[in-house]
Amino acid sequence: MYDPKKGKTKIVADLDIYTKFEYGLMGLNIDPKYNQNHWIYLFYSPKGGQSDTAQHLSRFTYDNVRDTLLINSEKVLLRVPVKRTDCCHTGGSIAWDKAGNLYLSTGDDTNPFKSDGYGPIDERPGRSGWDARYTSSNTNDLRGKILRIKPKDDGTYSIPEGNLFPVGTEKARPEIYVMGNRNPYRIAIDQHNGFLYWGEVGPDAGGNSEKYGPRGHDEVNQARKAGYFGWPLFVADNKAYNQRNFEKDSTWAKFDPMKPINDSPHNTGLRELPPANKAFIYYPYDESPEFGAVVGKGGRNAMAGPVYYSEDFDTDSKVKFPSFYNGKFFAYDWIRDFINVVTMKPNGDFASMERFMPNMKFSHPIDMQFGKDGALYILEYGPNWFAQNDDARLSKIEFNAGNRKPVAVASSNKKAGGVPLKVEFSSEGSLDYDGDALKYEWTFAKGAPKGNTAKASYTFTKPGVYQVILKVTDSYGNSNKEIIEIKAGNEIPKVEMAIKGNKSFYWNDEKVNYEVKVADKEDGSLINKKINPEDVLVSIDYLEGFDKTLIAQGHQANTSFSNGKRLIELSDCKSCHSVDKKSIGPAYKEVAKKYKGVAISTKLVDKVIKGGGGVWGEQAMAAHPQLSADDVKEMVKYILSLADDKQQSKPIKGDFVTKDNGKAGTYIFSASYTDKGSNSIPPQTGQETFTLRNATIKASDFDNQNETMKFKVEGLGEVVVAMTDKSFTAYNNIDFTGLGSVTILATASDQRTAGGKLEARLDSPTGQLIGSGEISAGSTNPTKIQLSGISGFHRLYLVYLNAESKGKPLFAVVNLKFEKAK
């Protein structure tokens, strides 16, 4: 739960769910009368076993006071049985109409990978999981559908009038509103006329086939009433697949959209189906001849957003969209990162389509909804499939009918140092979205002349902590500010950590030789022995895997421990406490054990600042009003860290033998020193960190990419899929010193990929070619590239080539294995 007023998030439920393939928590929505009943509906995959593989549509009660979903309040309204033996397609979107009917989308639960990208209609015995006539075109099955029910207060439901099959129809489920769906992933209801919209994620064939039928298309669909939409017999505007015998690999006449017949032996429903409806909007991998450039080309994942009406939102809202968008439908695509606004004729027919915010780069939008204020909220998944993306986010788009405030961005080349301290300031990144001319005003210090240029410099001659303010004003008088804090009067210590040999990788059971050097303008250095080696914190940490975010957090943590230790040494705390022996007050290690696992809170910080007694006996702790809350927080961090023996410092020089016990990861060598402070300026911390990663790295751990996608493959983990010719991945700061070769493992499925060529280049996609290999379809290919004669740090580019792929992905890259020179 995200609270926009507090800017905080909270986990309000932890579901025990089945997460293999595409299963998990697929859909969520609140009851139309949520303010009265606090009901929330989830569509999810319960853990269960093979005896209970049904997806559950369940109602839960939400506790608004404690911000918690009450798991024990669950009422299961509907079960949708699925196979769980392999993939694909779950749907899972939940929506409501104005009459209080609940719509639920379900996927076809059919494996598409043995049908050459065309209609999956394999009628052989035991192949029901490869036949969508068993699900989508089966009137007696809930999969591959959009269901419509009327929930009741007791946790059951009734069937609304107007569903596709009346209650009591033999071999037909009355819950079905729309059938013949492949993967209707996101759906929406026009609250004024009741029209249903959904995005249909389509099949993979890149080209038309005389033998099998039409190439794959994604669809955006509209249903004004209940109906059949064709899958797996038809796609797009009722382009028909050929009837097919999979055992003989033979085909014959096309299916008839006016009289579709489901004669699959797997079918448990009606043989004669309703006439097939054409798609509302549809587009292939390649350019769309029907809808043009507005839908783009390349990978595709169509989804359906809301239909907007200005009158549905607060009349005094200053952020709601204007009446220009009234009655318009928001269609979007997860892969292509666009949102299109669709204008319709009065009867609902397609009229035109235009790009919404064409200069905005979205990051795989996966759901959207207008809030009560008329602003558009968007969930953005981030760029990679089945991955935890750093830029996954909740975005809010407001309409501004007037002039927008400029954006102020301030930076400096230094944040601290001894006096005189000359600092260069820049406003680079500041901008005005309306293109207005900007004025700049820098405030450096009280009484000092102001700067009025985009870049400025100022020399601080007196020790102190200064709040430097950049104010940016546009030609209409709208302004914004940003503040930079500069600490003058104490130079930041210089810390150097030297590592011999290759500075990118470690190899198990081999020594890493390191040495730390420290020099400080005010305190002296390790060399002249004015800095005690015991005051330098040296840590060697190990993290499984390679997570840049965790590594960064590890660096900050080490600095905090060092800073907190020095702040304690410079205070009067040592008069009453020591690290491991009781004095007047308890030893810090005893304090750490007592509060182990406790979060650093305002209460703990206040204890130090305000003083108190009664916790450790009769002796009261003195107050420390002279300490700032920020400094006390660092001191408390250090004390609590003593509960963990791993925080003991390593020597400033030595050999370390790497052992990851078979779990490849990253070693973090970090050194930091916090000085004694100077000229009333608080202590400053200098640090340096080296990371050595396992010499076998996942291809998905790239630093830059073009036209690739991450994808999880069972048995291989996360791989990189090259989507187009000249796509690439890049790996920064690879030290080639002492390396002999790198072996790149790639694989190409003969069903979904085209194969191609892999090139390894230095420093750019067109840089020095150091090796290449052919990746043929239907095989797994290791490409070994010799690295002798290359030294120093370079960016390594893997470039993926196939100009004849015809819209198909090329191949997947699994990992890169670096070997030392012999």
Automatic annotation (TrEMBL):
Q: Is Hydrolase given among the entry's keywords?
A: no
PTM info: Binds 1 heme c group covalently per subunit.
**UniProt xrefs under Gene3D superfamilies:** Cytochrome c-like domain, Galactose-binding domain-like, Immunoglobulins, TolB, C-terminal domain
Molecular functions per Gene Ontology: carbohydrate binding; electron transfer activity; heme binding; iron ion binding
Q: Where is this region: Disordered?
A: 114-135
Question: Which positions fall inside the Cytochrome c domain?
Answer: 559-643
Listed A to Z, the keywords are: Electron transport, Heme, Iron, Metal-binding, Signal, Transport
Q: Is Cell inner membrane among the key words of this record?
A: no
PANTHER family associated with the record:
ALDOSE SUGAR DEHYDROGENASE YLII, HEDGEHOG-INTERACTING PROTEIN
Q: Write down what this protein is called.
A: Cytochrome c
State the species of origin: Pseudarcicella hirudinis
